[in-house]
Amino acid sequence: MFGRKKKKEESNEIYYALGVFSDGQVDDHQFETWSDELMDVADNVGTSSYIVKEEIDQEHLKIIYERFPKVDPIRPFFVINEIDHAEIEIEYAKLEQQFKWKKFFKRVPLSEYMDAEDRAVFAPHKIQLCTNDLSEASRFLQERRMEDEKNE
After folding, report:
1. Distance (Å, rounded) from C-alpha 116 to C-alpha 10?
2. Contact (CB, 8 A) for 50 and 31
3. d(C-alpha 64, C-alpha 76), whole Å
4. What percent of the chain has pLDDT over 90?
5. CA distances from 113 to 89, 92, 108 (A)
6. What CATH code would you report for 2-83+123-151?
7. Which residues are within 8 A (CB) of 50 and not within 5 positions of it... i.e. 6 or more apart?
8. Is the per-residue pLDDT at 15 higher than 70?
9. In this structure, are strands 2-5 and 45-52 parallel, antiparallel, or unpaired?
10. Largest CB tally within 10 Å, which of 86, 107, 114, 140?
11. b/e sequence 56-95, b meaning 16+ C-beta within 10 Å
12. Rounded CA gap, 20 and 40, in Å?
């Protein structure tokens, strides 16, 4: 798994996490193309992650497939969820509790923090959109951007 973060973030705007779930057959270039397109479409994607389905909790995948039955699990799919910083902090606290001594010596690997962040933002019961269609994901982000602008 690897992730990309957008540099521009403001505290009063709502940002979304983009997850590209695949069986590992999507190359880096394709992931970057998709994530760049979705990050630029509405300028409200704060982070994107490429997630190999075999490497995550299979129970989470089962919940996703049950919640979004139209998603074709064979093809790559896009998962979008609002970034909740409080949930991320809770996952970080769990991680640091698990690795108390490593935390004390500042030896908790960055990859562990990234995995904790992914668990928080891609919790299956909080996912707002899951689709195989890039244009549907794009429309969703644009609609959220317009809603956020109305609420300001």
Report:
1. 22
2. yes
3. 13
4. 57
5. 10, 7, 8
6. 3.40.30
7. 1, 2, 3, 19, 20, 22, 26, 31
8. yes
9. antiparallel
10. 140
11. beeebbeebbeebeebeeeebbbbbbbbeeebbeebbeeb
12. 16
pLDDT digits (tens, 9 = 90+) for 61-82: 999 999 999 999 999 999 999 9
Q: Is the dihedral of CA 39, 43, 47, 53 positive or negative?
A: negative
Instruction: Determine the pLDDT at residue 42.
Output: 87
Residues with Cβ < 8 Å from 54, sequence gap 6 or more? 23, 24
Query: Rounded to an integer, what distance in angstroms lies between the CA atom of residue 101 and that of residue 99?
Result: 6
Q: What is the pLDDT of residue 99?
A: 78
Best CA proximity match to 34, nearest among 21, 52, 53, 15: 21
Q: Is 106 left (phi over 0), alpha (psi -120 to 50) or beta?
A: left
- pTM equals 0.81
Residue with tokens 């299956």: 124
Q: What is the tens place of the pLDDT at every residue in 28-60?
A: 999 999 999 999 998 899 989 999 999 888 999
